[in-house]
Amino acid sequence: MQLALKNINKSFDDKQLFNDVTFNFETGKIYGLLGRNGAGKTTLFNCIAQNLSVDSGSIAIIDDAGQENTAYENTEIGFVTTTTHLPDFMTGLEFVHFVMDLNRERLTTPYSARENLTRYGINDSDQNKLLRDYSHGMQNKVQMLVTEVTNTPIYLLDEPLTSFDPVAAYEVKERIRELKSQAIVIFSTHILELAKELCDEIVLLHDQKLEVLGNDKLQSQDFEKEIVTILSEEHGNDTLS
Ligand SMILES: Nc1ncnc2c1ncn2[C@@H]1O[C@H](COP(=O)(O)OP(=O)(O)OP(=O)(O)O)[C@@H](O)[C@H]1O
Asked: Is ipTM beyond 0.95?
């Protein structure tokens, strides 16, 4: 399966974020999306997840038979956002139960809701607390958990690990590695070492385009310097004329 961006353009007011971007993401790879603050990474995720529309161009899921679908359901996309939107009035356990029940036909997890929460380091007493009383990191864990178990073919992870403690971050990295065999995984991060460790391909959002970082640069000792050099270069004006 592929996720195909074809000639996409997107601007907000006078700021152009994507200029005729064409790019194919494939199943079986973890893509690290890097770019400077405000480059448009979250906006790109929102366009793929159909929360925002592109100004022109198309975004399609292409199945293994080559069938292209631009009218895919947003339930095909597992989107972990930086800011969580969880129901305040439910406990962690109630919410995970609820999501698992709603998605029971596509669940991949062999675990119960309680076991899944435990797996993410949320202990018995916290499982019965209201989500509004969870810490930021705990809310992020719940969001990652409910996204992971629903078995979508595309996962968009917007800075997924920044609020996790080291144990949870380790576990979630393992989960992300497991996901890639049957899904396209794209995650944005500003942590270069994490991108290098986890990703099969680094994609830079820079100068309103997506550009793959060559494998030689990915393996290079000067990886960090290379990225900083590229992202520091200004090739053009980022505003519309
Ligand atoms: N709904 C919106 N209306 C107007 N401008 C927006 C909207 N959403 C995003 N922007 C602008 O688009 C630009 C890109 O924002 P976006 O959040 O996609 O960047 P980002 O690459 O994810 O940044 P960061 O690394 O800081 O999280 C910013 O200048 C932002 O202010």
From this structure: yes
Confidence at residue 5, expressed as pLDDT on a 0 to 100 scale: 98
How many domains does the chain contain in total?
1
**So what's the pLDDT on residue 85?**
87
Residue 78 located in a structural domain: yes
CATH of the domain at 94: 3.40.50.300
Output the six-digit token pair for 120.
């993410």
C-alpha 42 – ligand 1 centre gap (Å)? 7
Continuous H helices in the chain: 41-48, 92-102, 113-119, 124-127, 136-149, 166-179, 192-198, 215-219, 223-232
Would you say the CB of residue 15 lies under 6 angstroms from ligand 1? yes
Structure confidence at residue 235 (pLDDT): 63
Helix (H, G, I), strand (E, B) or coil at 179: helix
Taking the model in full, what pTM does it have? 0.91
**Residue 59 belongs to domain spanning:** 2-232
Query: Which pLDDT belongs to residue 107?
Result: 81
Residue 120 lies in a domain: yes
What is residue 83's predicted lDDT score, i.e. its pLDDT? 85
Which protein residue's CA is at the shortest distance from atom 13 of ligand 1? 38
User: Token pair 């679908």 is at which residue?
Assistant: 69
Q: In testing the pocket of ligand 1, which one of 9, 12, 82, 209 has its CB within 8 Å of the most ligand atoms?
A: 12
